[in-house]
Amino acid sequence: MQMKILITGATGLIGTQIINDALSQGIEVNFLTTQQIKTVNEDKLKGYYWNPESSYIENLECFEKVDTLIHLAGSRIDKKWSKSYKSKILQSRVKSLEFLFTLIKSNNLSVNHLVSASAIGCYPSSELKEFDEEDAIKTDNFISKVVNEWEMAANKFNLIGIPVSIIRIGLVVSAKGGFFRKTVESIFFYKIAVIFGEGKQIQSWIHIKDISEIFLFISKNKLLGNYNAVAPNPLTNFEMIQIVKDNFYEVLRNKNFETFLGKWFFQTDYTGLKKIFLVYFSLKVPKKIFQLIFGEMHYILFSSNKVSSKKIQNLGYNFKYTDFEKAIKNLD
Fold it and tell me: How far apart are CA 97 and CA 152, in angstroms?
């Protein structure tokens, strides 16, 4: 029987990659979008409008013959956290899950599996301890509190007979968006590689291709419970920024930076061009500066998360990218 998935948050960074990979593997995809202009009606891909804030969905047809529901919906966290925006970060994740729960339960819809996104921000900050899925969530900061409520809302689906998988995502490496693209754009504009404080905080990262494949691997194999989605080799912030700096020219040549630089930029590869893009300086910027600029959000820049990937590896997932330098040179 052909697999069919329904994705929320499908037009975001991770959702877009999952759709592309799913279709290439012969998996049918329905998706929910809060932008009516992005609805589609194709043979293997159908998009439907919904507005979870107002508990509205255009058509319950989106659930037809769906085996797995992949939940990615949620407002981005890389914006300054005002009181109102903090509420939006939380509610966009929890309320959308609660709305899906009510829809499925009240309409007796047939869904066999929920795979929900989460974040490694659930783990305490530590430069020494490696955290795995058995470690308890410590709700001592805003992000860990969000993750706790997010995961509780997802696990509620177990009560109506829908088994749950939760994927705790690390820093996603992609040229199309997220922290890595922001880092590259910042270096391009200022020609300085900015290190957060002393740069000792550990950052657990994952290539966009691997995060997409992990969602599909867990969906296809019905792997239940919590899983960390991070590459096996975390780096300190200092190490990560130095690798980006040293490979800056090669990274910029990636086709997904064309819209940022202009397609004409690298059409002629002459000797002086590489020299133009060399980045000579790294700068350690004190924590207080980030605190002043970003407010409470600076926590995620300085949090140290050494997170284990052993559980998903032991179940048979083979990472495509375990080396950060190789990962940033291979972005589709």
Answer: 10
Q: How far apart are CA 217 and CA 127, in angstroms?
A: 30
- With a cut of 70, say whether residue 1 has pLDDT above it: no
**CA–CA separation, 135 and 223 (whole Å):** 19
For 73-80, the CB contacts below 8 A with 24+ separation are: 73/8, 73/9, 73/32, 74/9, 74/117, 74/150, 77/143, 77/297, 77/300, 78/179, 78/182, 78/297, 78/300, 79/297, 80/294, 80/295, 80/297
Interior angle at CA 148, CA 19 and CA 134, nearest 5: 90
pLDDT at 192 (0 to 100): 85
Percentage of the chain lying above the pLDDT 90 cut: 68
Dihedral (CA of 195, 200, 201, 204) sign: positive
Q: How far apart are CA 311 and CA 132, in angstroms?
A: 8
Range scoring the smallest mean pLDDT among 48-57, 223-232, 251-260, 277-286: 251-260
Total Cβ atoms within 10 A of residue 59: 12
On whether the CB atoms of residues 285 and 195 are closer than 8 A, the answer is yes
Orientation of helix 142-155 relative to helix 83-106, angle to 10°: 10
Q: What length does the chain have?
A: 332
Tokens standing for residue 61: 């047809």
Which amino acid, residue 262? G
* pLDDT, mean of residues 49-60: 93
Report the range out of 34-48, 117-131, 205-219, 267-281 with the highest average pLDDT. Answer: 205-219
Looking only at the bridges linking them, the beta strands covering 126-131 and 305-307 are parallel
Does residue 17 have a pLDDT over 60?
Answer: yes
Please give the residue that has the higher pLDDT: either 205 or 252.
Answer: 205
| Helical packing angle, 237-246 and 178-190, nearest 10° | 60
**Residue 234 contacts residue 206 (beta carbons within 8 Å):** no
